[in-house]
Amino acid sequence: MAEKEISSEEIFKEFKEHSIAEFFKKNRQMLGYSGMVRSLVTVVHEYVTNSLDACEAANILPDIDVAVTEIGENKYRVRVKDNGPGIPKKFVGKALGTILAGTKFHQYVQQRGQQGIGAAGGLLFAQVTTGKPLFVNSSEKGKAYSCKIAIDTQKNSPIVTEMTDLTEEFKGLSIEGEFADVKYEKSEHGIYEYLKRTALSNPHCQIKFTDPDGKENVFLRAVSAMPQKPVPTLPHPLGLAINDLLEFAHASQSRKISSFFVDTFARTTSNKVAELREIAKTVDFDKPPRSLTWTDAEELIKAIRAVKWIAPDATAIIPIGEAQVKIALKNILDPEFMNVVERKPRVFRGGIPFVVEAAVAYGGKAGYQTDEGSAGAILRFANRVPLLFDTANCAITEAVKTIEWKRYNIDMETQPVSVFVNLSSVHVPYSGVGKEAISKEDEIIEEIRLAVMEAARGVQQFIRGKQHATFEAGRYKTTMRYAKQLAKDLSELTGANEKELFDSLDKIVTKHYPHLKKQDEEENAKAAKGKKEEAEEEEGAVSE
Ligand SMILES: Nc1ncnc2c1ncn2[C@@H]1O[C@H](COP(=O)(O)OP(=O)(O)OP(=O)(O)O)[C@@H](O)[C@H]1O
Ligand SMILES: [Mg+2]
């Protein structure tokens, strides 16, 4: 028998709204909180990127202290402290305990943070896994205070308790929290690697990391100049989608749609607006932007795509810079050879400018050391932030994988090579809210390929020389082995003096390879010295 039909009234008794905090509480993987190792890195990543943004906004050379302590099974205490400007008491709750609140998302300026989610996301994760609030110390105009911050997920609002003025000296912001379902690991996906790479892409900052074993690791500041400060810019019309345009229009204070265009977007003069008017005939340009409808926006976007625009201004993008990347790579990887390339600005999606920097480094600490030997590594960055996860979904990985490495005498499977790529943009197109990979836009992939290939060309000569030298050394060693055997056999056969025979063969070979002969002699002398010392040590041990 068919079941009785249920009315919509009945079903809608269950209708509820829920807050963005409730949403992320259930979908924390979207913020990077999935997998125990990754979750712990995400916590550190969110608070460290915030510290760097804050210090740079305040013109302070960043000094960041990160400490991770094990406090139980899969349970750790994390503290991130900076020497930045701190957060005024009045804003601390909202800044760190409200999702989608911050000082950055409404500014069109190149920064690490974009969304106003990171800090409160970390708090949400602490609260869900350990039930504990965050413990915060901050300075405000030379005075220090401390407080605890929790989050009311139903309202997406902060609960600030124990606000206390501090008498001791404190400058900056320190955030401490307890997190469970996490694990510390010293792997290529762990906190140590994350901070090492942060130091690499931010040579102006100093990072101290105390790991769970109590070991202090310091990544020293390599340059003492602040990076150039990015200037806020206006969005370019070609970078807009329909809903972006609606959002801008509904938030605008301009009187008319025509003036809204001139006030809000880059490269938009009243002449350009007149051209748009000609095409988007159904749109009333004299009505207030607040009344812009979806259909209007659709028409306007069509018109925007139909007119010619001056390319967006890329001066707002500040890459790390060739000289700084060199210093940082030297400092962290100490390679035998490297080539760094900074490309000119390009645009994606028609109107969003970006700049790619790439480097290929060979030898030293470049690449990975595996049980079988060396292997190539890809170091991915977006606006100087290391990207450790979601490798397969990233435009950088895609670009590097499609390069024919053999053409550059490079073998990413067996050689100690690091490929470094940093993409800088006012709007990095991440492939998810967790910001761990750059989405695979065609223009971006192509530009990264070109940058990496250019960098690879610069190391090709060096690697070819190195391969040739290895080949020659091998050939020299084999030939000399044969010479030794030949001298012995000839002497036995003919009765001629073996040493004389060998010396004359040696003379012929050495004439062509004097440097290899010298190298060989040095190696033999070293080996003999080592053996002698070993024997003496043994003798000493026996007589004791
Ligand atoms: N260490 C800090 N010093 C000073 N202000 C900070 C610090 N950390 C966070 N803030 C303030 O708190 C706000 C919220 O931080 P949150 O990480 O949630 O968002 P965001 O960094 O703006 O964007 P995203 O979600 O992309 O990280 C920031 O915009 C900033 O104003
Ligand atoms: Mg942030």
Q: What does this protein look like?
A:
This protein is an alpha+beta fold and 544 residues long. The chain has 4 domains: 20-219, Heat Shock Protein 90 (2-Layer Sandwich), CATH 3.30.565.10; 237-306, Helicase, Ruva Protein, domain 3, CATH 1.10.8; 322-458, Ribosomal Protein S5, domain 2; 465-543, no CATH class. The chain has 15 helices and 16 strands. The strands form 3 sheets. The chain has an 8-stranded mixed β-sheet with strand order 5-4-3-6-2-1-7-8. Strands 9, 10, 11, 14, 15 and 16 form a 6-stranded mixed β-sheet that branches. Helix 6 (191-201) packs antiparallel against helix 11 (322-333). The protein is globular, with a radius of gyration of 31 Å. It binds adenosine-5'-triphosphate and magnesium ion. Magnesium ion is lined by residues 46, 49-50, 113, 118-119.
Secondary structure topology:
Elements (H helix, E strand, L loop, with lengths): L7 H5 L7 H7 L9 H22 L5 E10 L2 E8 L6 H9 L20 H13 L3 E7 L2 E10 L4 E10 L6 E8 L10 H11 L4 E5 L5 E4 L22 H10 L5 H8 L5 H10 L14 H13 L15 H12 L3 E6 L3 E3 L3 E11 L5 E3 L2 E3 L1 E6 L2 E3 L7 H7 L15 E9 L16 H53 L3 H15 L1 H30 L1
Parallel strand pairs: 1-7, 14-16
Antiparallel strand pairs: 1-2, 2-6, 3-4, 3-6, 4-5, 7-8, 9-11, 10-11, 11-16, 12-13, 14-15
The protein binds adenosine-5'-triphosphate (ATP) and magnesium ion.
The site of adenosine-5'-triphosphate has 22 residues, from helix 3 and helix 5.
